Structures
1.
Amino acid sequence: MAAPNRNDGIQMLLQAEKKAADKVAAAKIRKAKRVQEAQADADKEMEFCRKEYERNYKIQEEEVFGLQNNTEAQITATTQKTLEMQNESFRLNRESTLNGLLDTVLTISPKIHINYRPKQRA
């Protein structure tokens, strides 16, 4: 009778070992699933963060380029206004300036230079 008990004990140990191996395998499978789910969640969160950073970057980029375009438009407008004012000033003062210049150049009034000393004859 000792022999059958021994076989029963071995059978029980083998069954217990098999159950333990099954539990370990099931735990490994659950762990692998949790790791995959965690990885998927992390990937989703990283994608969300990346999209958020890109959206913020685009907003800031548009603000900067908008300011540059606005500044460029202001500079162009100021330059155009200055050119128009200079052209108007030229148009208004051209005749009087030319007349004054011609009067100065063409009016000849001979004078003796103040440093001139005539030589005395001996």
2.
Amino acid sequence: MTLYLARLAPSSQLTMRYVLQDAADRLDFEDMNIEEIPWHQLQPEDVVALVATLREDGYAPNTSSLYVNAVRGVMNEAWRMSLISQEHLLKMRSVKGIAGTRLSQGRNLKRTLIRDLMEVCAADPRPQGLRDAAIIGILYGSGMRKSESVNLDLAQVDFTERSLCVTAKGNKQLIKYAPAWAFAKLDAWLELRRSQLKEGETDDPFLFNRIRRGSHITRERITKHAIYYIARQRGAQVGVKIMPHDFRRSFITRVIEEHDLSIAQKLAHHSNIQTTANYDVRDDNERRRAVDRFDL
């Protein structure tokens, strides 16, 4: 189990540890530390029972698949360590999660709303105003995930090409592009940050800093939780509940609207085009108008 978690990105380790702990509790290992559980002794019927409990508790198909994939990952490590046979591994892999899909709960952030967000940031005289505008601009303008934005370094940014080299899921390096207005917001933030440096101090290697009360720009990298807080806080200022991933959803939806699904897939860096299609969160009115055009 420890080896499986070690292979994951740091951003995924905490989530999968929680998933494995909950899975262990559901498999009657609640009194054991997950590192001590004999995962290699699990049988296919144990995973089937796990899926059944998730179904009974109303878990969504995607969440069920997350649990099954976590157990599979641990079993893969057990096979690599010669604790189980290949036949046993294949049987474990044959167990599926809950079938079905759920409608996306994401929000499509219209351009007018993005402008409103930029305006509330511009009206904030604190350093947070410029920083938050830059973060929102990069998230919405490039479609990157919040974990990718948190880990961005200055060395990964090409201001001439308006590109950002990010380390994405699966430890893959990808090039993302953002529009000129987003880079203008980023440049304004970095210029302010540099102006706060004392003589002889060098600039920070990362893009976004934590800012403490009193508008003190720390020399610390921003956290994912802070990105979540920024989205919620700025959304509340314009009267909308916003989650960080809504910026990515809206980016992909807009590319689908203005170009096509294939271009959106490439810009989102999805290996499966169906994943891209699932991000399409155009509202019901737009779908209804599309159907209404089918006149006799």
3.
Amino acid sequence: MDHFLNVVDVEATCWPGSPPPGMVSEIIEIGLTVVDLAAGERLSRHGIVVKPARSTVSPFCTELTGLTEDEVGRGVPFAEACRILAADHKAGSRPWASWGDYDRKQFTRQCAATGTRYPFSRDHTNAKLPFTAAHGLRKRPGMAQALTIAGLPLEGRHHRGEDDAWNIAALILHLASRDAWSLPAEEAERRADHAR
């Protein structure tokens, strides 16, 4: 069994309110950390800056993410970013996780809108759910709050995809160390064994 997991976090164009006329929220950064669940280690971190096609980076977005219009203007097109995920990071076959479902849904929406092949496997885990259960919480915490609860430092800048993926990976390893993390395929197998 492959014990590697891709942890993904995206940043997208955003505004303090609704998007301006003619613009849509688009991915401008993809952060990815590869985790070896068996070894309990974060192996590598990656950041892909993506050039938006139907929106611009607002001052609000720059304040939140640190990404500027010039910086994303030098990024790769979305379809190329998806190709990189599939070719260089085994996104189509490797299980993956994100903090919440936003990242998965944003990829689904943007792939459908642009006719781009979805780069990820169906084996996705919303890491917020097992964290909430493992800590007996009533409300699902944001990533920064979860790090505080787990006693882990926030490394890097919050709302930067590469840094957030690195921090989410630390939360997943925290869960794994407490036997509170399993991949969807392992969970399905465990349920099937209990049903027998």
